[in-house]
Amino acid sequence: MSNTEEALDQDRLIIPFLSRVYSGLHSFAETLLRVVAGLSLTVHGAGKITNPFGAAGMVEGLGFYPGEFWSLLLSCTEFFGGILIAVGLLTRPAAFAGMIVLLVTVWFHWIVLAEGFAGAEKSILWSAILFYFVIRGGNSQSVDSRIGRQF
Fold first, then answer.
1. pTM exceeds cut of 0.85
2. How many domains is the chain built from?
3. What is the pLDDT of residues 120-133, one digit of tens each?
4. What are 7-16's contacts with CB under 8 Å, separation 24+?
5. Does residue 7 belong to any structural domain of this protein?
6. Which end of the chain has the smaller Cβ count within 10 Å, N or C?
7. Helix H segments across 50-66?
8. Does 12 fall in a domain?
9. Calpha distance 118→110 (Å, rounded)
């Protein structure tokens, strides 16, 4: 941020001193959100990866055939995609795949189970977080940045 931009930013803040705090923690906050989102997705997928075909009946019940294929894809997307997001490698495609899974869960809870917003709320929030990383990619504290390549 240039000195002029920083001065303008400070002029808009009720407590101008906080400008330095916010700018100093910007990268850390974004990295923390990516790591927590990725690790949470990994933990959620850990049970599925130990039995990757275990959700075949559920996904077929949602209309995804063959169930074994979609169950395996679901397991890998959550577990391995979460790891990729957490470390920031292939961040955009991993986040996109996870976002698609979560949008299906929005539909499942809101429409299929008729739970409305209350049932889909967490999936909506997680979808929005992953959408952020689809657009933003990994930041300077990611493997993508370290290798100098992004998808």
1. yes
2. 1
3. 999 999 999 999 99
4. none
5. no
6. N
7. 56-61
8. no
9. 8
